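Contributing new records

If you add data, match the layout below exactly. Sequence lines come first and carry their own label; structure lines follow with theirs. Keep one chain per record. Anything else will be rejected by the validation script.
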Amino acid sequence: MSAIISVQNLNKIYESGFQALNDVSLDIRRGEIFALLGPNGAGKTTMISIICGIVNPSSGLVTADGHDIIDDFRAARSKIGLVPQELCTDGFESVISTVNFSRGLFGRPPNKAYIEKILRQLSLWEKRDARIMTLSGGMKRRVMIAKALSHEPEILFLDEPTAGVDVELRRDMWDMVRDLRKRGVTIILTTHYIEEAEEMADRIGVISRGKLILVEEKDALMEKLGQKQLRLQLQKPLLELPEELKSYPLSLTHNGLELIYHFDTTGDQTGIADLFQRLNEHGIDYKDIQSKQRSLEEIFVSLVTERATPATEAAE
């Protein structure tokens, strides 16, 4: 699959000397949903802002659908829609006016049918003549999404799009993302709701302290790093693990009624059969068994923690 966005050796150093991005290289495939994850201050917003032409890079090359974001800015930017974290729009404008104006900024001819379609999808059609200043926070977020989609972009950036919004908008957002993806739009999102990335994304990128530490197919990442837990509910509580079982990756819950066994799904042997034999030898009976795979959030936290080094935190 061809790359619609190509980032090569991207660096951003601010006047203060803080390096927000450190030699980042990344290709984003046409038509995929790519989730960029990272803690606050990791460089996510800086990277998106550079690709969208809002912030200038210190060095490196970025192209959008083959257009250099600096040398061919207009062509590159016309391919991109951006839903930023912050709500920023003219409060005195009506909903439909500001969305039509955004479309015109990109030189697109009027298209009443298309604008009506996206406003209806976002439950904004009934509010089309309302001034933005009169809308709720959730409705204002919907307007930002409509503006980003107004010029029919091939690439859509969603920077924390569902942070602090209601459940209904979040559901509508992800229905729209699925619809856009079916139409061939490439989606790049950052989110604090990692379960959304786990459900929606084709690939996951993790950025920490300005460095891209991992890019992986989501399913491969979950298979590679998604260790499993086996939870055994015991017939009788244990006060402590027998000495012979302490070498196993076992933990005992505080009430002594559950044993939790951690195992790697990618290994040749899980050790489960041997564990059951040892439990039998020690007269430990269980009444129920449950298996759980480590979530993407747990994988993300472990990746960032492993790579963390002492440094001064800075906002993006």
